[in-house]
């Protein structure tokens, strides 16, 4: 087989709205030291650097987060791909692929979100190297996580025929992707053993991925071909801004993965968590006898199943149940845990009120 260079594309521009108010527009959740006393972004860099050197890592980031990213990770300009604005993962990954193509004729690439937690580094690296093997045969690969409970917050992948088995790892053709199911469906998926959680991580050859961009996103592909001519020139930045203005805001899942034919999934055996919301704190912090998570100076009495966070003023709680109470530097946020799934709509309302925009 051909000896391909290996690159990593790290999508680092998410805004972490479901971690508000700890996550803010200018410092989203991937920069917060909420787990293992390191930021999620730094943990991602450490994890992938074990198999891909820093010079082959590309961090896709909107311009307003470029400086904080560069400083946190001690990156060089060549590591950063700066977007004029955020336009979801399909656009970000395609742009990064173009920059990689400029450096090398073709490459094997892993695409990683910057805000996931993964344990079992060795098992993760085995899965990635297995995926690199299969990607050389022109597959678009994703990593599927065997479900451990009937989760309604994840997308699912239904597996089809076995492609390859090696060292206790198996890759399958993907039969279909399923959006976040209701509880009954999730329970069916768990029991069937034919469904995996969709991790949102991918491996493929740059050349093969770009052929899929050409097929399923033809107008954007034409823009990329135009941009390719002006990379490294004075026209590059202005042209990129124009392209992003008209680019569709769409995920790579919707744009390509759910439409292409040669889609494969590796049944992965590493511990994975997308730490999707502030409720994830319950999985990583010890709980008291009332099943409360208490971060900071917290005193509770007759309080159950709640999350408290403060870095300065103490919080006292009496007779509370199912509460989220966050004291951040400039505000206090209180929410019933059962209503937390409305947080994005809540933030939209705040955004429409000039008085509260500064807190976003």
Which residue ranges are poorly predicted, with pLDDT under 50 across at least 5 consecutive positions? none
> What composes the largest sheet?
5 strands, mixed, barrel
- Averaged pLDDT, please? 95
CATH classification class of the largest domain: Alpha Beta
How many beta-strand elements?
Answer: 17
Alpha-carbon distance between the termini? 50 Å
Q: Specify the overall morphology.
A: globular
Helix count from the secondary structure assignment: 11
CATH superfamily membership of the largest domain: Spore Coat Polysaccharide Biosynthesis Protein SpsA, Chain A
* Proportion of helical residues: 25-40%
Going across the biggest sheet, name each strand in turn: 6-9-7-8-10
Q: So, CATH architecture of the largest domain?
A: Alpha-Beta Complex
The CATH topology of the largest domain is Spore Coat Polysaccharide Biosynthesis Protein SpsA, Chain A
Q: Secondary-structure element order, as H and E?
A: EHEHEHEEHEEEHEHHHHEEHEEEEEEH
Q: What share of residues are in beta strands? A: 25-35%
């Amino acid at each position: 087989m051909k000896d391909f260079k290996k690159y990593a594309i790290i999508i680092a521009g998410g805004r972490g709205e479901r971690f508000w108010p700890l996550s803010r527009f200018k410092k989203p959740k991937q920069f917060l030291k909420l787990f293992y006393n390191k930021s999620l972004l730094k943990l991602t860099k450490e994890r992938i650097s074990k198999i891909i050197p820093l010079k082959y890592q590309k961090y896709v980031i909107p311009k307003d987060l470029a400086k904080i990213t560069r400083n946190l990770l001690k990156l060089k300009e060549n590591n950063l791909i700066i977007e004029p604005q955020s336009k979801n993962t399909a656009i970000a990954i395609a742009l990064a692929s173009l920059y990689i193509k400029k450096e090398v004729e073709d490459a094997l690439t892993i695409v990683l979100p910057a805000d996931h937690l993964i344990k079992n580094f060795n098992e993760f690296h085995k899965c990635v190297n297995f995926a690199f093997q299969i990607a050389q045969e022109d597959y678009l690969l994703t990593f599927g996580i065997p479900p451990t409970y009937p989760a309604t917050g994840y997308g699912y992948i239904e597996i089809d025929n076995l492609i390859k088995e090696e060292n206790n790892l198996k890759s399958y053709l993907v039969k279909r992707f399923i959006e976040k199911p209701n509880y009954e469906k999730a329970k069916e998926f768990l029991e069937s053993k034919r469904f995996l959680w969709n991790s949102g991580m991918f491996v493929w050859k740059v050349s093969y991925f770009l052929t899929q961009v050409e097929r399923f996103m033809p107008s954007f592909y034409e823009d990329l071909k135009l941009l390719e001519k002006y990379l490294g020139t004075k026209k590059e930045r202005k042209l990129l801004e124009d392209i992003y203005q008209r680019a569709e805001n769409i995920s790579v899942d919707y744009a390509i993965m759910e439409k292409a034919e040669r889609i494969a999934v590796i049944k992965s055996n590493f511990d994975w968590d997308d730490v999707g919301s502030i409720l994830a704190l319950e999985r990583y912090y010890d709980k008291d006898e009332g099943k409360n998570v208490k971060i900071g100076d917290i005193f509770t009495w007759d309080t159950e199943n709640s999350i408290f966070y403060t870095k300065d003023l103490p919080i006292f709680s009496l007779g509370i149940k199912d509460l989220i109470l966050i004291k951040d530097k400039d505000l206090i946020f209180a929410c019933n845990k059962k209503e937390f799934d409305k947080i994005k709509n809540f933030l939209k309302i705040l955004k429409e009120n000039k008085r509260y925009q500064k807190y976003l």
